[in-house]
Structures are given as structure tokens and as C-alpha cells.
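Progress report, Aim 2. The chain analyzed during this reporting quarter is listed below.
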Amino acid sequence: MGTIIPCGNLNNYPWQMSYAMKNRHLLLGHSPDPDDAFMFYALAADKVETHGWTFEHVLQDIQTLNERALGGELHITAISIHAYPYVAKHYALTPCGSSMGDGYGPMVVARAASSIEDLRGRRIAIPGEMTTAFLGLQLLLGRGSFEHEVVMFDEILEHVAAGKADAGLIIHEGQLTYQNHNLHKIVDLGEWWGGQTGLPLPLGGNCIRRDLGAEAMREVTAVLSSSIEYGLAHREDAVEYALGFARDMGRELADRFVGMYVNDWTLDYGDVGRRAIDELLKRGHAAGLVPAVTESMFVG
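Predicted C-alpha cells for the chain:
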């Protein structure tokens, strides 16, 4: 991985912009997970035309990427929708690259079956305070109604199974493998959200720095979209590549997981997806959990 120069003061954008535009070399942050790997397979394998742009893939967990977005360190990055209001002044969401839970999503699991009410006052392991999963859990249970501790997302299942927390908030492939740890699902936040709103739960997306300028933002977004389209059109090859990033999953399960989060929603949020983001962030703001977003959220 090349040298990464933190932005520091986000108002100091001209130098950063000229650097990226002159070199047409962009830092692209995404998580080391099957769905993100599937999305960017075509870019990583040089399968699509990039129109002179080059991409350096920076693979880190979503909580770390959220934190790096606060410093404006990456030109393009995967981001939790929960985190987006904190960086909206400097990043725009790309219409492609979303992870939407349409009737499913992050789950709370525990060692014994119990009710949602039983979670209040309990200690829950979470994958990060800026994840959308944590925002959803707070909307469900109420702010401050439970204790939480941050645990790396791929360690939560073992953490809960070992009795180190009363319950765990799981994301990524843990949603399909939690039963291997003899754990029980208490609530699926995507299912709960759909019942509350009739909308999919917008978990994550890709965002791009506004300082690149409108033309470059559109160009780069089109490249990202072509990578996703290529993966969907060459699913077998893309899943094979994504398997290298799968944990505790064979090909069939990895293919199922990819299908959950890389689909038509990923090609474009559409009106429903945009409305889902707006509703989530409005509810989060009303509950005092996120700041209001006043900027136009999407590229072009």
C-alpha cells in the first residue's frame, strides 16, 4: 500500500485536490469482506476501463474506515450510513455501492433465547459506535438503555459464546454463521426496521470527496458502477475472488451472503433507497444520535 497522507484540516483541500487530479491516483477504502470484494473484483483484476484513474485499495474494517473518513484521509471509502452525517460536508455518497438490508440486516444474538425487552440493561458487544448497526440498535432499545463495548466485528461471536458479553450485535457473514457458535437470534434489525417503516435498512455505502470536483466525482462514480456491473454479470468469477475474503464460509454460503448485499440496490439506491437513508437519518437526528444533514447527499 502506498503512503497515505492524512488531510488534517479538512478546509485545506486545494493541495489535496491538485495531487489527486494531477496523478489520477485515488485511495479506495473498503472492508475485507466478501460483498465489498465482489463489488471491486473488476477493479482489482483490471477488468473494466478506468479512463486513466488508478485505484489503491485500502482494506480495513468498517469502523476504522468510518474514523478515517472523519479525517478525510481517503478519496473514496466505504462508510456506514450512521457515520455519513459527520462527514457530509466533505463527502458525497455515490449512487452505487450501497449495502441495503431488505427485510434482513444486523442481528443481536445471545447464548440463550430471550426477548427484545430483556436486552435493556444488558452488556452488548458491538462492532463500532459509528456503525449503522449500532444506530439501529439505539433506535430500537433507546439511547443509553444498555451497556456496550466495542469488539472487532469478526470476534463478536466468540466473545459472546465465551460469556464475555450478554449479547452481541453482529454484521457481515456472522448473520449466517452465528448458529455455529450455539447462539440464538434475539432480533434482526433489518426485519424490525422494515416493519416500522416499510423500507429497506440502509447499512452502508460508498462516498467520494467533494474536493475532487463535480466532473471527476461523476467519472469515478461511473468506474465504480462498472465494476459492480461486471461482478454481477460475471458472478462465478467474482464470487471465486470474494471467497478469498470469506470467514467460516464455503462457496455456497459466500454466494448467498454476496447476494444479500450486492444486488439491484447496489447498482443504484433508487428513490426507495434514498428515502430509506433520509428516514434513518431523520429518526437518528430526532433521537439525538446524529447531526442533521444539510448538504445534498448524492453525487450528481
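The two ends are 30 Å apart (CA to CA). The first strand starts at residue 25 and ends at 30. These observations will guide the mutagenesis work planned for the next reporting period.
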